[in-house]
Structures are given as C-alpha cells and as structure tokens.
Sequence to fold (164 residues):
Amino acid sequence: MKRLISGFVPICLAACVLLSGCGKSAEQKLLGKWEPDLSEAIKKAEEEAKEDPAAAMGLEMMKEATMTIELKKEGKMTIAMGMGGMNITVDGKWKVTKDEGKKAKVEMSFKPPGEEEKEEKGEVEVTFKSADTLVVKPLGDDTDMLPGGMGGDEETITLKRVKD
Fold:
C-alpha cells in the first residue's frame, strides 16, 4: 500500500498542473480532487484474467481499490486510499517547479503511514489532455513509483478530476 501511495502522489500532483484553461497559474489549475482512470488497465487485466488465475485476483483488487488526491492551497495535499475495508489517509506537500503551459513539473513529498520519520519525495511531469484529464509521468529515479499498468502504460497514469 505504501508503494501504491508513493506512486500516485507525485503523479496526481503533476497531473493537476495542466488541467484548466488559459490565464490560470499552474498552482490554480492543480487545486481540486483527482483520481486515477483505471479503465484501460482494467480492460488489459480482464484479458489477462481469462488465462491467468493470479491476474483474475489482481483484477478484483484493482476494481475494489480507491484513491483520491486532493491538492489544496498553500501547497498542501491529502491522499486517501482504500482496499479491502482498509483505508489510509496521508498528508503531504506539493509545489510546481516548472510551468510550460501544456506541461508542468511538480515536486511532492509526504510521510508514509507508520514511517513518520521518513519523508518520500518525487517529481513528475504532467501533460494536460483536457481540462479534466491529465497524464502523469514520474521523472528521474522515481520511475518505479507507478504500479505496473495502472494507467494502461507502465510509465504513466491518467488522472481525472473528481466533480463535486
């Protein structure tokens, strides 16, 4: 679960950078709630599950898992995850380091549950697909932060804005 959190935090942060229309700063565009779009990963897992019992179990876990990343003012964030009746909430920080219009770079940090003395840090690149959809890619040594196939591609994940 810690690895899953480590993978999604930087991705969601970066993804939010390029979300909204023109005229807004990257920080303003990032504000709000985001969740991973697992539709492509689920389709892929459904095909694999037809021939592999282990993949079928992974598919059920994927369908049951929930995650929401809320990016707040003043660089604060909250990540909420759930699976199998177990829920975890983690607070952290985010900061836009580069705003290029259609792309942005975002740094994030948080303390993993049960390891408050340790701080996880990462940087991601965000590409806006629309006002409500982003593609996030970990940068540098953070490329292992994404759970394999979560976004349909092993190195990126798609995030969708949560509408209230």
In short: The mean pLDDT is 78. Residues 11 and 110 are 13 Å apart (CA to CA). Strands lie at 32-36, 66-71, 76-83, 86-99, 103-110, 120-130, 133-138, 157-161.
